[in-house]
Amino acid sequence: MTTKALTSVNPSKSTGSAAGSFKRLVGNRIGSAFALVIAVLWTVPTFGLFLSSFRPEAEIKGSGWWTVFTDPQFTLDNYAQILGGATSTNLAVYFQNSVVIAIPATIAPLILAIMASYAFSVLQWKGRDIVFVAVFTLQIVPLQMALIPLLRVFSGTAVADVFPFLSLWVAHTIFGLPLAIFLLHNFMSEVPRDLIEAARIDGAGHVTVFMRVMLPLMLPAIASYAIFQFLWVWNDLLVGLTFSGGSRTVQPLTAALAAMTGDRGQDWHLLTAGAFISILLPLVVFFALQRFFVRGLLAGSVKG
Question: Tens digit of pLDDT for each residue in 31-77?
Fold first, then answer.
């Protein structure tokens, strides 16, 4: 039977599924051009912010950033004030605070989630599925409900005085842990059981299987979640405001920028420079790990 005959018997074969039609639409030149237009429109505000951060104060307040193409005037004074100016506008300390908060608050839930995912997906123990469902449902607990009780646990304690960032690390870890366990468990469950059984037959224990079999295979998923967790912690404002107590030595960069917006809302030259500094490190992290991020997304897309 010819292709034409098959098409006449089942007309739906000629049109394909909705997913196939959408894939053909976005895969041609029109789809590529449409994606390019969206990317440009999405990038223009960030590009304008970048140019404005290098413009003199009088130019920013007197004209739009696009006038830089006809009258280019640039200066580094904005960044000099933000990184080394007066105390009220110096964001260098807050930038350090955000780094100190974000790195442990990314690594801690990642380590705990990887080990928990192994326990939920590989180890066989009674009540495993019930506990996993219980952990999964913790995602629906509103963040705002847990802030005050958790704050009371640390408030006024000697531990909080010795480790002022501890409450922020714990808060970000416990709030990010349920989703991390859920995502990594799904990836780890897709690893063929034959690999684990072969390693066990060769005499490998669970530690060896975990370190030499699971971790290398999980690297794209781990990198993907690490990017998400780092961005969530870095851009967080609510937890930072609640647990820092307004202290300059603990407060993250987002809280300082929010305060600067209220106190110095007319100083656009400082706000643009501060805003671009706040997105600089997340961009570096994203571009450094983006190849693992793409591999993690593709791995998730072919499971079905």
Answer: 788 888 998 998 898 888 888 889 888 888 888 888 888 888 888 88
Residues in the chain with pLDDT values less than 70: 1-27, 85-88, 263-265, 293-304
Distance CA 30, CA 24 (A): 10
Residue 221, SS3 per DSSP: helix
Measured between alpha carbons, how far is 175 from 302 in angstroms, rounded to an integer? 29
Tell me the C-alpha distance between 208 and 74, whole Å.
Answer: 57
Residue type, 95: F
Q: Per residue, what are the HEC states of 89-132?
A: CCCHHHHHHHHHHHHHHHHHHHHHHHHHHHHHHCCCCCCHHHHH
Which residue, among 299, 302, 304, 174, has the nearest Cα to 239 in the 3D structure? 174
Please choose, from the candidates 79, 76, 75, the residue with its C-alpha nearest in 3D space to the C-alpha of residue 95. Answer: 79
Give the Cα separation of 196 and 213 in Å (integer).
7
Retrieve residue 225's tokens. 């979640």
Measured CA to CA, the distance from residue 181 to residue 225 in angstroms comes to: 10
Among candidate residues 272, 277, 293, the one with its CA nearest the CA of residue 95: 277
Alpha-carbon torsion 162, 165, 167, 170, what sign?
negative
Are 76 and 251 in contact, with CB atoms under 8 Å apart?
A: no
> What pLDDT, on a 0 to 100 scale, did the predictor assign at position 87?
66
Exposed, middle or buried by CB within 10 Å (0-12, 13-18, 19+), for 122?
A: middle
